[in-house]
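Justification of resources, computational component.

The compute hours requested in this renewal are based largely on the per-chain cost of generating structure records like the one below. Each record pairs the submitted sequence with a full structure-token output. That output is archived, and it is also reused by downstream analysis tasks.
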Amino acid sequence: MKETDEDFKDRIRDLEGGDLRVGIDILKNSDLNAERGARTEVIEKDVTTAFETVRGAHLTLLIEGLKPGPERLLSHIIQMKQGSPTASLTSHILYESFKEKRDISYTAFRNWLRRLSDLRLIDIHQRAAIGNAHEIELRFDPSMMEEGCRT
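The structure output for this chain reads:
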């Protein structure tokens, strides 16, 4: 069954995760992949390959644009998640662990955490029935994110 233009638009919309720049780059790279394959139409493989290329480049640019503080926090989150991939990482546990390495106020920590969330590098989920606890999740593969961190 041949996919329609709407199917591809839906697929790209799902992949780009709400970032218009990523969606535009996926479209552009999908078209380039089809041209390299000497095809006049974009196929699913073109979109998937383009997504992998764009995602890596976009992630690197996001991480490189971070100030040193938030970048160190991101690097710390990555290390903690790599050490215990299945363990739940709460904001309290993260703060206590990060504070051992760097003297930081809770307000600055929350601001850095919020910045990482705003850039869609991490997700912060409110944990049900546990007061004000928040669970921290990386949005990308930790090893992929680690490559972009300088610290």
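Residues 3 and 110 are 45 Å apart (CA to CA). The mean pLDDT is 84.
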